[in-house]
Amino acid sequence: xxxAWELLYLLTFRELKLxxxxxxxxxxxxxxxxxxxxxxxxVVLRKFIRIDVPDYxxxxxxxxxxxxxxxxxxxxxxxxxxxxxxxxxxVYFPRFVLPLATVMNNGVQYTLSVPVLVLLLLASGYxxxxxxxxxxxxxxxxxxxxxxxxxxLIASLDVYFRDLEHLTDVFVGLIWFYLTPVIYPLSIVPAxxxxxxxxxxxxxxxxxxxxxxxxxxxxxxxxWPALVFAAxxxxxxxxxxxxxxxxxxxxx
Amino acid sequence: MRSERGRDxxxxxxxxxxSKHYSLSLQKEATDIKTALLHLPKFLSNARRPFxxxxxxxxxxxRGESLGIIGPNGSGKxxxxxxxxxxxxxxxxxxxxxxxxxxxxxxGSGFHPRISGRENAVLNAVLLGLTLREARDVLPQIIEFxxxxxxxxxxxxxxxxxxxxxxxxxxxxxxxxxILLIDEVLAVGDAEFQKKCMDHxxxxxxxxxxxxxxxxxxxxxxxFCDRGILIEHGQITDEGxxxxxxxxxxxxxxxxxxxxxxxxxxxxxxxxxxx
Lengths: 252, 275
Prior knowledge:
Strand content of chain B: 15-25%
Distance between the termini of chain B: 64 Å
Largest sheet of chain A: none
Number of helices of chain B: 9
Distance between the termini of chain A: 25 Å
Largest sheet of chain B: 6 strands, mixed
Shape of chain B: globular
Oligomer: heterodimer
């Protein structure tokens, strides 16, 4: 088990390194992309459509950053068993580290983008408080477990049914993204839809991040969908991985 | 089933009635909806056609023994190693493995061309079974064995294929296995490096490492192994001293070839006589 964690650490580190090696901007790319996306969305939604939300740029980025972690991990992670067929067929090692390394790698990038958000918050007169010390690790953990569970589940099935890579890409990018309060806060959704929107684990999670960053508020009982889904996804993900991994080497 | 129970301390690997079936058509057609729907009856019948790679194999490898496996292509040799390594579970039967296994089914699996040999060596060693600390401890020996010199800190895309395999081999033999499975990877590098690899494997054998070697090199088998088996069509068809097994196999192959040559000659004569 210890070896599995070390392997996870080494693979995460390698992926991070590979992503920035031989590039001029290196790690900055991890910030440029969401910031650019944020800037465009800000212009379109705030200036053109005139969404009426105070400090909209902060609301937007506090949602967009953690969402990016989720989306990129899923899109890159669900194919990680299928893409590493050669290795899986030749070496016996704890294979679950492959998709988890992708989740970790993107988690590290998200964590490193938080200081940018803090700078913008400070510039707008917000000040962090002690709640962050508990809130950030707590939300990081919940989101990591949630993503890992989902990625492990889909990546395991993807070995046998490759369409899942495309399905995930379409579903997460085109449907899930818009149904989650990422580019808008939950508060502007009419109250009668709230219960439905909050059934989405990413909705309660993103709102949790916003409450922490913008209102210094620790996540409370409203977070239950994210907690339930994280636990369920982790259980389902590890179960399906265990059940299916024996056939990986033969199916790939 | 892979079990650690019923430990017999003298036995490193025990196969009891091990069979391994592959579903041939499951691999391509099942993922293509259009083909599946267009050829539904054929698809359904095809999906269940198994290929028997191993057929009720019972086998014991004693601790410290060195077993050589020979046989024609596609007879089940590599499948045997894969099942031993735990990479693919058997379809039926029980497999018991006592000890840390290192499988050299392919050298340099998992090496990444864009990072340095040093970093690849550490990752590869952990992948093959060492802890991170063990990997870092053994790294100087790996680097020395590989004879890469300054190249060790260059990205591996700059390596020649010989350098690539040398590093792969160096990592694999320094993983300190109790059971070493080798699939046709001995002949790497130049003659000098090959000699070094052979010496190292002899050294491992002296230390009591159990060795299972799959090879097409009939000369090497008697050099490395205490016992040989011949696998054909997923079954063990001969067993004995390496010299014996190789001799029996080669003389049969020669007879077969001779028969074919004879037949061709006869055909030529017949064709020549016809007009």
